[in-house]
Structures are given as structure tokens and as C-alpha cells.
Amino acid sequence: MIGAIVSAVVIGAIVGALARLLVPGRQNMSIGLTLIVGIVAALVGTLIAHAFGWADTKGIDWIEHILQLALAVIGVLLVTRMGMGRGGGRTGRTMT
Fold first, then answer.
1. What is the rounded CA–CA span in Å between residue 28 and residue 88?
2. 13 near 38, Cβ under 8 Å?
3. Residues 55, 46: contact at Cβ < 8 Å?
4. Gyration radius (Cα) of the chain, Å
5. DSSP assignment, residue 34?
6. Exposed, middle or buried: residue 49 (CB in 10 Å: 0-12, 13-18, 19+)?
7. What is 36-83 written as a DSSP string?
8. N or C: which end of the chain has fewer CB within 10 A?
């Protein structure tokens, strides 16, 4: 159980950082929020991969990791588009 939590944090950190690198433009997110998005993506990706039987392979589970990365990219896009990063995404300026 502790090993699963530690691996979720480590994989989540890697997946979250990769997701921020893959999303174009500047993401106004803190490191903590990046970790949370990555950890959630890693856990949900693992659950989906296990549900479909994609995580029970010999060697590296590439499908599971690609799924985790895709979910992290979606998570980073959602967080930045919803303005949940630093500063709330609002500058006080109106668009004309």
C-alpha cells in the first residue's frame, strides 16, 4: 500500500511535468497543483488500464503510461482553461 502511494507520487510528478511541457503556451500553475494533476492522472490511468487488462503485461506497461500522460495533459488543459492556476486567471482587463 505504501509502495503504491509512493509510486503514484513519483509517476504523478513525472507525468505532470511532462504534461506541462507538452501543452503549448504558458501554464500559470504552481508546482503543487502540477503534482496533484499528475497524481490524479496517474491513479485514474492505472485504474482504467487495470479495468481493461492493459496493465498486466511483461515488461513496461507502455499503454498505461501513455494513458496516464494523456490524462495529465487533459488535466493541465482543464486547470489552465478554468483559471484555477495562480492568480485565478483574471487580469482585470476587459477584452475589446
1. 9
2. yes
3. yes
4. 15
5. H
6. buried
7. HHHHHHHHHHHHHHHHHT-S--SS--HHHHHHHHHHHHHHHHHHHHTT
8. C
pLDDT tens for the chain, 96 residues: list them. 677 778 878 888 999 999 988 988 887 888 889 889 999 999 998 889 889 988 777 888 888 889 999 999 999 999 888 876 665 555 544 444
Distance CA 72, CA 8 (A): 13
Close Cβ partners of 85 (under 8 Å, ≥ 6 residues apart): 27, 28, 29, 30, 33, 79
Three-state secondary-structure class, residue 11: helix
CA distance 78 to 65: 20
